[in-house]
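Backbone Fold Data
Goal — fold tokens
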Amino acid sequence: MNNQARWMFGVCWLGCLLFVALALHFWGAAEIRAEFSEVFFLTFACAIWLMFARKLFAWFGLGFRDDAVERRNPAALVALCGAIIAAALLYAGGSIGEGPSYLNNVFSVGIAAAAFLAFWVLLEIGASVSVSVAEERDLASGIRLAGFLLSVALMLARAVAGDWHSESATVRDFINDGWPAAVICIIAVPVEHFTRPNRQHPFRAWVSYGLLPALFYVGLAVIWLWHLGAWEGMP
């Protein structure tokens, strides 16, 4: 499991960087799309962001080395893969669109990441999901958490995507386009209480109690993205 976990997480990590590079190449600002060096620089910055994010996830009870590798916890590995993909989505969303400065990207990614972590904290406070994943090693809980994080990240990334106008306009658009992420969080708390393992059912079926709720979360996010349509300035 040790080598398998490292291999799976490494593939996920590289896939995230490839996705960000392609997003910048096709949907970044015109000067970024025109220069390979600009795409490379911002992709390298994404690698640093993902390393920082991985360290940050440990504060939520999900450590890659401690849980996924040393304790050989598949639930933690699935949740961490979902979390790192979510972090890449936030970075990509905040980096696409026209803008005069890299600081605009930093601001957009920053508010999306702050909201993302806030919703994760609320889920943890309301349902203690990290206990089910890290301590009880429940695979269904890990899949649900991954689905929750991906759905929230999709909504928040879309909310910060597009051309830059000002800080106030970015915050206004972020609230107008990203508020359904709060609905996902509100739904996820009772779902966690209903589906988490207990004394009567210590081992939940990962398909019905994990995959289906995760697909439900992501499906809601996809419907909202379809409703919003293309972001402003999308090539």
